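ESCALATION

Customer reports they have been waiting on this structure for their group meeting. Please prioritize. Original submission:
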Amino acid sequence: MNETWCHYLHPTTKRMCQEWRHASSPRPKKAQSFAVAGKVVLNLFFDIQGPLIMEWMFVGNGRCSVRYCDTLQNLCTAIKSKHPGKLSQGEILL
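Update from on-call: job pushed to the front of the queue and completed.
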């Protein structure tokens, strides 16, 4: 498992700000990117064959034990679907 803090932002593109205007109207200002959000935690579980699950945890949701238990249940489901039989054979340690 790798737990990493990540910054994210919501860019505004020029395409999103386009609007209809008359030919003699002044040109609109160019749209600029701006950061809105903040930081999130990326929980990444992987094995030798690649990533199993990636889950984003937002800071406002809290980092409580219930959320981590849900993450571990999702991990078991991902292992069963991507590597059937490995949990029962004892090849994977959690």
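Sent to customer with the following note: The chain has a mean pLDDT of 73.
Escalation resolved.
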